[in-house]
Every structure is written in C-alpha cells, then in structure tokens.
Amino acid sequence: MSFMDSLLIEAFGLDPDVVHLNHGAFGVAPVAVRRAAAAWRERAERNPHRFNRVELPGLIAEARKHAAGFLGIDPARAAWVRNVSEGVSAVLGSLALRPGDELVIGTHGYGAVRKALGHHAARSGARVVEAAFAVGAADDEIVAAYAAACSPRTRLVVVDRITSPTATVIPVAAVTAALSDSGALVFVDAAHGPGQLDDDIAALGADYWIGNLHKWAYTPRGSAILWSKPGAEVAPTVLSWQLEDGYAAAFDYPGTWDYAGWLAAADGLAYWKSAGGWTGVARLAAMAADGQRTVAEALGVSLERLPARPAPAMRLVPLPNGFVVSPDQTDSLYEALSRQRIEVAPVHFGGAGYLRIAAAPYNTAGDYDRLAGVMWDLACGD
After folding, report:
1. What residue ranges do the domains of the chain occupy?
2. Which stretches make up the Aminotransferase class V domain (predicted)?
3. What homologous superfamily is domain 276-379 in, according to CATH?
4. DSSP per-residue letters across 176-218
5. Axis crossing angle, helix 277-299 with helix 365-379, rounded to the nearest 10
6. What is the CATH code of the structural domain delimited by 46-264?
7. Per-residue model confidence as pLDDT tens digits over 27-37
8. Any idea what DSSP says for residue 75?
9. Per-residue pLDDT reduced to its tens digit, 164-199
C-alpha cells in the first residue's frame, strides 16, 4: 500500500488490515465528517434545553437546504428521513389502500422494501405484483416488465434507480413515461443514487423519490431525503410538533433524538466535492470496471449478460457455475471471505451466484487483486 493509499484509508478511519469492497451497503463517513457530527453532538449537550428548544429548528432547516441544493430540488419538497426504509414506510402509510389494490416492485427490488409492501398489502387486502426481468436485460425489456406488471388496480409502482442486488441502473424516466396513463403513483428508490448519478429528480417523472446521502455522498449514517412532487403529499411516520408546518418541515423534528448526522450532512457533501465531484465518480467507475475484470479473469468467468448500464461505482462478478447455488450459501461465502479480511457482498439472484464489488476513494487496484486471489483459492483451488 502506497503512502497516499494509506492516507485515504486513514481519512475514512477504516481498519487498514481489511479490504473494504462493499461501500454501497452502509457507506462510511470520512473521519472529518464524523468529527463534525461529534461537535454538533457536544454542542447539543452543553445546553440541551436551549439547543433543542431554540436553535435546532433553524439548524435542521438550513441543513435540509444544503441537501436539497446538492440534489437540485426545492428545499420545500425535501424531507429529512433516516433511510430509504423509513421513507417507504411514510409513503405507504399515507396511502389509503383498499382490498384488491396492487403494489408493484421489480424482482431486483430491495428486500426490506418488498417486506414493507407485503406488510401494508396484507393489512389492507391489497397484493404485491412483481415486474420480472433478468440480469442484463435491455432497457426496453425492463420498461416492458414494469408496464406488464401494472393493471387498472395498481396504486403504487416502486422503481429502483440502482438495484441493490444487481447494481443495475434502471431507466426510470422511460418507466414513468410508459406508466403515465396508468393512474398509478411511481416511487423511485434511489438508495444508491445521490453521489453516483447526476439526476434531475423532478424530471424523472415520478411522484416520490428517496435517496440516501450516507452511502455515496459521504454524510453520516441516518441521512436521507424524501422528495415528493407538489400534490403528492406524505405524512411522516412519526407525527410531532411541526406536523402542520408544511411538507418538509413536518419531517424536520420527529421528537427528541440525535440530530448530529443531519447537521453534519453538509460536511459530507463538501467532502464528496473535494474528492472530485463527478470527475471523482468517473474515476471510481473506471476502478470498479477494472476490478471487475481482474476478479473475473482470475475466476475464468465471462462478463457477458451482465447489466448493460451498471452503477458507476458498483459491479457484479459472476461466480463459477455450481459455486453458490442457493441463497443460504451466500452467508457461508461471506464468512469465508471475512475470515480472510475481505468485506464484499456475495449475491444469489436468478439462480446464479455473484459478487457485488464496489469502488470507493479508499480502494486501490491491489484490493481487487487480493479479492481475486482469495476467490480463486476458494472457488478454483484444490
């Protein structure tokens, strides 16, 4: 590891003896951003009564303005939530579902979101319908899958911007255009979007959009924004003092808790910019592609029939046939890799096994070489 590489590892406060190739799972805030959050936490504890009673509302609103500026949206339509799951729950809780209603999600959709849809469907007598498409499906096939899954009973369609298990960029604008006459509401799950994709959120044509800032925009964990277009109102999951103060403000204060992460979000966004902004994202994309090839060549697997539009900083690597043949085997592979001090995401999808690798500012080419060597020993060695 070079001196500069070690400095980047230190900048993120990561264990230098571990290869970290799964940034997309939980993200990690740089040390400077964590210190900024700690400073807010300490300030709150110095005079908690005044801080919470007088100072906090304006500080949260200002932090929301920074986040909205980064995303290119109106701060009045940007609501603070802790993560995508919380935002999904808020939207589902705001829908008056009836027996026979349908909720659509892609087969590549995030498992926790699918569980939330299933829960609300079971309570109301609605049902969940899946839009099915294969890994590597073309954009027109993906759009057709969502259109085919909809019916006159469809109330809500959840469309991933970047799929979690397969790191696929979904053509959301084309999906919303195809569904424009269906009467269904469209909700974009952009958990991996902020900091990876330079989207015009309002122009996507959806009714709701949610994105985590703590994955690829380097803010503290628990920082996400729920956007809704005017007229598509949503009530927060926690109803508190600012409920009647307008859409965004209603989410600003869900009661007494630690707001340091939201208040330090601007520091994370500033770090993203200092790391190169979109030029930095392009560098990560090149590193992810190179790393994907390195591991694939070591395993002797083809990169054909993978996502035509992969996430910039995330890639799939197919595993050799017969190596991971069921979902329960992903945990054992994860543990085997973790024992070798490598953190990466094994995936079983569509009957096949993959590794989902990532590229973050602290990664180097040597990280993928290390993964390739260990995976060869596990999958191909004697």
Report:
1. 46-264, 276-379
2. 58-231
3. Aspartate Aminotransferase, domain 1 (3.90.1150.10)
4. HHHTTTT--EEEEE-TT-TTT----TGGG--SEEEEESTTTS-
5. 30
6. 3.40.640.10
7. 999 999 999 99
8. G
9. 999 999 999 999 999 999 999 999 999 999 999 999
